[in-house]
Amino acid sequence: MRRRLPIDRIPPAAANRLSGGFTLIELLVVLAILGLLAAIAVPQVLKYLGRAKEGVVNVQIQALETSLDLFDLDVGRYPTDQEGLNALVQRPAGVNQWNGPYVTKATSLIDPWGRPYVYRQSSQSGNYLLYSLGPDGNRGPPANVAAVPASARP
How crowded is the C-beta side of 99, counted as CA atoms within 13 Å? Predict the structure, then answer.
């Protein structure tokens, strides 16, 4: 059985060895392991966040479509290109049947990347096209994150 010495009886050289911290090699090994974990985990997290933003776009577009349908029911038409999605928040000039706001927050008109949703109305069919420009801001309706023409709605 080994006897423990009281702390005040430990020789100074042994006390330095016992109270010492981690060596430089140990710290470098831990940092290397953390770096490897970060290199593996960060791309996966970024990919997940990218998919999450696309999901948010789809949900927000569905909510905006519902608001546009309510506007159509009240006013008898969808907003014009000039009125845009702001017609869901503020009464357009010359529209008496407006019972809005149909969107409670104007920030709902902004996509997760900080850009306004694009709204285009087709005067021939009465349908509209509502989409986000996506993360790069250069996408149009054909290759968009969420391009949903009114004719494709159920």
Answer: 10
Confidence of residue 16 (pLDDT cuts 50, 70, 90): low
Q: What is the tens place of the pLDDT at every residue in 88-127?
A: 888 888 888 888 788 888 888 888 888 888 888 876 666 8
Task: For residue 147, give the nearest of 132, 135, 136, 134 by alpha carbon.
Answer: 132
Separation between Cα atoms, residue 144 and residue 18, nearest integer Å? 63
Question: Is the backbone of residue 94 left (phi > 0), alpha (psi -120 to 50) or beta?
Answer: left
- Homologous superfamily of the 22-152 domain (CATH): Glycoprotein, Type 4 Pilin (3.30.700.10)
Q: In whole angstroms, how far apart are CA 97 and each of 10, 73, 104, 154? A: 90, 10, 18, 26
